[in-house]
From TrEMBL:
The keyword Kinase does not apply. Residues 1-29 are annotated as: Disordered. Its cofactor is Mn(2+). Residues 311-446 form the ATP-dependent DNA ligase family profile domain. This is DNA ligase (ATP). The keyword Ribosomal protein does not apply. Its EC number is 6.5.1.1. GO terms for biological process: DNA recombination; DNA repair. SUPFAM superfamilies: DNA ligase/mRNA capping enzyme, catalytic domain (SSF56091), Nucleic acid-binding proteins (SSF50249). Pfam families: DNA_ligase_A_C (PF04679), DNA_ligase_A_M (PF01068), LigD_N (PF13298), LigD_Prim-Pol (PF21686). It comes from Sinorhizobium glycinis.
Length: 826
């Protein structure tokens, strides 16, 4: 049995070169070991003796005695029992090259059945080592769609007498328990430094003497179905691996390093010690173009791993693959041919390159693009980037760079399924695609599933059969379901009628929200409240024949009410009503209306035009629930309560992306804004807008009137825009917002509103304006996944991340001096 389990371990190693054991013992004990390993970067490996092998997890930041620290642990291949005593140096060129010490070892014991715990993903055990003792827990994280083979866990200490939040055990006890040596003592003596190569950028054709630029807009590749071929052409093309990470421009000048995102934001601090690697380069100043990634065990970049590393502060896992050099020591290289820029870049990096370097050179092949593309596809890579060797660097989208994805990958709605009589389970999924608010059939997918996935899908789809709608042009054997689940599909291309060719199921696109510490749900809606509400025409569909029903709308607001009501009770509200269920018939309602439920309150106040008007407010659960009967889809709330109408207690910075700005860039921008606001001693919260943007909401002490708040937030917005003027704009002109994000502060004027937390939006599939923790914001791939169908279930397990928002109120800064003294870049 051990032989089968060690197959992956042995495939990765050449035992004629590495001192690691091949493995022969079957073993039946209960020992454990924690290795400290310096491969690409320092990390720790936890290994437990189970079933004749060592079950292994790589822990990038190492174990912590503080129960509050939850450390990422990536499950790796099983290791042989002899590995418990292995300590030494894995030679260069071998898998996991680098020194390794036995940092801790001893005995372990399970607290529950081992196989059942590992299967469920909740594994409790006790350790009795020289450094680690007491109870520990490994809990498995839900895999992202398409990455089910990546098994990620969280490792943390149980609260028991062995816990010690005050001690950093990694720093206090860095030595090996076997030899007493530190890992630094095992590192091979460095080779004598090579004679430095003299870099002469001015000798390159096209180099121009110039001062270092503060920012260069990156060159972008044009998508193509097939890579360009150099055969029979005078144009020579270079072909590189396509990485899946954060595009980053490294600026080096005067000993300082700035790491700038594609959108022009300074993320230097966010990348931990990575800037230090650039300071060691043999140059006075440089601008290097590349991509920051995290690699999996096979050396493939995975964006999900990058998100996890940044969220867990595991910056030592970050690698920048450098693929272009645009400026060096007083010379602009933008007009130098690409192949000569890359040759100079390789020379610049040569003294720093090793298998463990935080900076790597993105190498290429010359010509043979189609063969390289096919090989990249076989390896499971994202695809390839092809670049014309003789071309200069051109900011923006260009045809001298092209990108060819290994397979097309898109998300499609699961609209139904078919049954296999032989297997008595799902045979295929029927796929749909939203077009102008209607769902269109796009064919079936019947590959990419394993038995466990098919069983799980059937369990999730069967309850969705009620009130499902058949799609035109589909086979009769399909069992239709309500279109609330989304699948990630790889496919070759589309037919003339838009059906997918050779589709492969890669997983469900799902959202998982973390539970904030201390989050509790307060019951605000009683059974009596629910029983008192009646819905006429409950089966009427909203926004097309595939849309949700009026009853779905009412049920959503009933299920999220306990979370939503604390944010709107006692506040003036405006409503978006869609009584017919058609987009074109929706309208904004800010004043009382005929037939309005008596449980909805109204009050008099002066309008911005100086007229006395009656406004609406939600004062209790019954009034809130009753509004669904009147076709209310959206709730928009004021930034003040009715009791203190003229003194706002919340302000909103609405980040509205212009044309050409994607979701990732919006998230980057929101994180940048968060840091800038924190510099003012404010506590920002975040939610999706329910559209393409993000709302950054700040609780403030209700001291200032609306005019002062509007002016102060305008000043702050201008400051925020000044920190990255090529990324942000504060004027409404749509013509100036292309490839920029509009920071809209005008919602902080009297009488203006913003979508309330958890409010649905009158759009296809009813997305919600969803409060998130800042960590969760980075894990969201598509904000529309937070909708009327998915959100109630997510909230039931996660709770409200804004539960303590009112406790975080601060004074809103109004002094011009405070604003001018704020840091311009974080």
């Amino acid at each position: 049995m051990a032989t089968t389990k060690l197959e992956d371990y042995r495939k990765k190693r050449d035992f004629a070169k590495t001192p690691e054991p091949a493995g022969s013992l079957a073993g039946g004990g209960n020992r454990f070991v924690v290795h400290k390993h310096h491969a690409t970067a320092d990390h720790y490996d936890l290994r437990l003796e189970v079933g004749g092998v060592l079950k292994s997890w790589a822990v990038p930041k190492g174990p912590s005695l503080n129960p509050a620290d939850k450390r990422l642990a990536v499950e790796t291949e099983d290791h042989p029992i002899e590995y418990i005593d292995f300590e030494g140096v894995i030679p260069e060129g071998e898998y996991g090259a680098g020194p390794m010490i036995v940092w801790d070892t001893g005995a372990w014991a399970p607290m529950e059945d081992v196989e059942e715990s590992l299967r469920k993903g909740a594994f409790k055990f006790r350790l009795a080592g020289e450094k680690l003792n007491g109870g520990w827990m490994l809990t498995r994280l839900k895999p992202r769609p398409g990455e089910e083979d990546q098994r990620h866990w969280l490792l943390f200490k149980e609260r028991d007498p062995a816990a010690d939040p005050s001690t950093d055990i990694l720093a206090a006890r860095p030595e090996s328990v076997k030899s007493g040596r530190r890992i630094e003592e095992l590192v091979e003596k460095p080779k004598p430094p090579a004679k430095p190569v003299k870099l002469n950028p001015g000798a390159l054709p096209g180099a121009v003497k110039a001062t270092a630029p503060t920012r260069i807009e990156p060159q972008l590749a044009t998508p193509t179905a097939t890579p360009p071929d150099s055969a029979g052409s005078r144009d020579v093309w270079l072909h590189e691996i396509k990485f899946d990470g954060y595009r980053t421009m490294a600026h080096i000048a005067g000993g300082e390093v700035r790491l700038i995102t594609r959108g022009g934001l300074d993320w230097t601090r966010r990348y931990g010690d990575l800037p230090e690697a650039f300071r060691r380069l043999p140059c006075r100043e440089a601008v290097i173009d590349g991509e920051i990634v995290v690699l999996d065990e096979e050396g493939i970049s995975r964006f999900a791993l990058l998100q996890e590393a940044l969220s867990a502060r595991a910056e030592n896992r970050l690698v920048l693959y450098a693929f272009d050099l645009l400026h060096l020591d007083g010379w602009s290289l933008a007009n130098v041919p690409l192949d000569k820029r890359k040759a100079l870049l390789k020379q610049l990096l040569a003294s720093q390159l090793s298998t463990r370097s935080a900076i790597q050179f993105s190498d290429h092949v010359v010509g043979g693009g189609r063969a390289f593309y096919e090989h990249a596809s076989e390896l499971g890579l994202e695809g390839i980037i092809s670049k014309r060797a003789s071309a200069p660097y051109q900011s923006g989208r260009s045809k001298t760079w092209t990108k060819t994805k290994a397979l097309k990958a898109e998300d499609f709605v699961i609209a139904g399924y078919t049954i296999s009589e032989a297997a008595e389970g799902i045979a295929s999924l029927a796929l749909g695609e939203w077009v102008d608010g209607e769902l269109h059939y796009r064919g079936k997918v019947g590959t990419g599933f394993d038995a466990a996935t098919l069983k799980q899908l059937l369990a999730r789809l069967e309850p969705l059969r009620a009130e499902a709608v058949k799609l035109d042009g589909a086979p009769k054997e399909i069992i239709w379901v309500r279109p609330v689940l989304t699948a990630r599909i790889h496919y070759a291309n589309r037919t003339t009628d838009n059906a997918l060719r050779h589709p492969v199921f890669k997983g469900l696109r799902e959202v998982e929200l973390s539970a904030p510490a201390g989050a509790q749900r307060k019951r605000l809606i009683s059974d009596a409240d629910l029983a008192s509400i009646s819905i006429t025409n409950p089966t009427r569909r909203l926004f097309g024949k595939s849309g949700p029903t009026k009853l779905d709308l009412a049920l959503y607001y009933a299920m999220v009410g306990d979370f939503m009501l604390p944010h709107i009770l006692g506040r003036p509200v405006s409503l978006v009503r869609c009584p017919t269920g058609k987009f074109e018939d929706c309208f904004f309602q800010r004043h009382p209306f005929t037939g309005m439920p008596p449980s909805v309150a109204s009050f008099e106040a002066m309008s911005s035009e100086g007229e006395t008007k009656r406004y609406l407010s939600v004062e209790d659960a019954k009034g809130y629930l009753a509004l669904a009967q009147f076709g209310v889809v959206e709730f928009h709330s004021w930034g003040s309560t009715r009791a203190r109408l003229e003194k706002p207690d919340r302000v909103v910075f609405d980040l509205d992306p212009g044309e050409g700005i994607g979701w990732r860039e919006v998230v980057e921008a929101a994180i940048h804004i968060k840091a800038e606001l924190e510099a003012f001693d404010l506590v920002p919260f975040v939610k999706t807008s329910g559209g393409k943007g993000v709302h950054v909401v700040v609780p403030i002490r209700p001291k200032l009137d609306w005019k002062k708040v509007h002016k102060a937030t305008g000043d702050i917005a201008n400051h925020l825009a000044s920190t990255a003027p090529e990324s942000f704009i504060t004027t409404m002109s749509k013509g100036k917002r292309v490839k920029r994000i509009f920071i809209d502060f005008h919602r902080n004027a009297r009488g203006h509103t913003a979508a309330a937390p958890y409010s649905l939006r009158a759009r296809t599939n009813l997305p919600a304006s969803t409060p998130l923790s800042w960590a969760d914001l980075e894990t969201i791939d598509a904000p529309e996944d937070l909708n009327y169908s998915s959100l109630p279930g997510l909230l039931a397990t996660s709770g409200d991340p804004w539960a303590d928002i009112d406790d975080c109120a601060r004074d809103l800064p109004t002094s011009p001096r405070v604003l001018s003294d704020a840091p311009k870049s974080l």
